[in-house]
Amino acid sequence: MRSTSSLKSKRKVAIIGRPNVGKSTLFNILSRTRSAVVKDEPGVTRDINVASADWWGHTFNVVDTGGVTDMQDTFSPLIKQQVKSILGSVDVILAVMDGRSGMVPEDRDIVRLAKSVGKPVLLVINKIDRFYEADIKAAEFYEFAVDLQPTSFERREGVDNVIEWILENLPEEYSDEKEGIRIAIVGKPNAGKSSLCNKLLNEDRMLVSEVAGTTVDAIEAPISFKDKDYILVDTAGLRRASKRKDGVEYISAVKSYAAMDRADIVLLVVDGLLGPTVQDAKVVEYILGQHKAVIMVANKLDLGREQIPAFRTWFRSETNDIFHFFQNIPLAFISAKTGSGLDQLFEVIDDVWLRLNKKITTSKLNDFFYDKIRKTPVPVHGVRDVKFYYITQTKQIPPSFITFTNHPESVSPSYRRFLSKNIQKEFDLQGIPIRIFCMKRQKGR
Fold first, then answer.
1. What is the CATH number of the domain that holds 339?
2. Engineering a disulfide at 328: which of 65, 132, 253, 430 sits with its beta carbon 3.0 to 4.6 angstroms away?
3. 190-204 burial, b if ≥16 CB within 10 A, otherwise e?
């Protein structure tokens, strides 16, 4: 397997620093987005977040990183190692410091880390509230003998100078970011989403920990798998609304649902040892409600084989019980830890993608349609049968169909489901959330 993230395909600028110095705010300014969660609370950013930036006709990727500290809590050593691993693949480094609190010992460690990789480094001194005091506030940071820029992200002061420095120090542009099938990876906390992403990326882009809630943002990463391009989006673990502990978890949940809305295909990762739950069913109902394709991914295949007799049969049975409203959900078995089953997973992804884009000729569609409605009772409008004239496929993805009739208001949701199921069965669209629209035939047609 070969995989390539966006960090290897476009000029990139890394933002590093201690927690709560303004890294994510700078990331959002440079990318002109709100991709990174910003909250006045240390440790909100934990994963590597990447977004494209376009300034004055120049494009580059901005890489936001977790706050680097010497604390020995659950996440800090993991974040520090993660940042070290990523700096070797970037082109320039912005080391953000807090001008309000002044230099602290951890700042020296961060600058040493930045300088150790041999890339251009700019010290960005944030939170300079009064710019006439900028020289005084920044003076103690000159000891590092690297370029320095006082700023106030809140007031957007000094940011233009930061951008000028970036453009002066970036290498010549060498490639464009790849496009591909957008795949959102969702599931409950600790189901294995980030482990799956890291296995596909061959790098520790997403922070993995035994503690639930490690991933906060929705993190994007283009990859190639067997010469096909995809965009992976790792999302925060989705808890039930009643179990979300704070505002950060709420914001993360909103971002996760937004990632599903933008995806072409959603992978619902489930702990294979536990099986799917009612919470997973609610997520699938949301996905189908957004007319997105979903694939169930049963993780921990290696442990499932060891601990559960007839593991695959048991899991399929559990899936059919929980997803009684969507019996044909595509299913793949993997081990994010060992990489087992990834080839089969991408076979399922490619198969679903082909069927999402399937086109059925109007003649074949109507031959089937007329045969089906002749053999079954049609809806009734008053005392008369509803008359169907013809059906055609739209250009939408997933496949959608419009049927023209004399009384579209009398075509019930249950009859539309009946038509949908028969179209899915006839044209190999099972597991694809197709739609049926009913319209009144215009005169002359």
1. 3.40.50.300
2. 430
3. bbbbbbbbbbbbebb
**Distance from C-alpha of 13 to C-alpha of 201, rounded to nearest angstrom:** 19
Distance between CA atoms of 51 and 31, rounded to whole angstroms?
A: 6
Contact 214, 235 (CB under 8 A): no
Amino acid (one-letter) located at 384? R
Is 208 a domain residue? yes
Mean pLDDT of 243-265: 65
Residue 380 included in any domain: yes
Cα(88)–Cα(74) distance, rounded to whole angstroms?
24
pTM of the model: 0.61
- What tens digit of pLDDT does each residue of 383-426 get? 888 999 999 999 889 999 999 999 999 999 889 989 999 999 99
Report the phi/psi class of residue 56: left, alpha or beta, with left for phi > 0 and alpha for psi in -120 to 50: left
Task: Supply the range of the domain harboring residue 376.
Answer: 362-440
- Give yes or no: residues 165 and 55 share one domain: yes
Adjacent-strand bridge partners of 186: 268
- C-alpha distances in Å from residue 122, one per residue of 127, 191, 335: 16, 39, 41
Distances (CA, A) of 159 to 3, 90, 131, 149: 34, 20, 13, 9
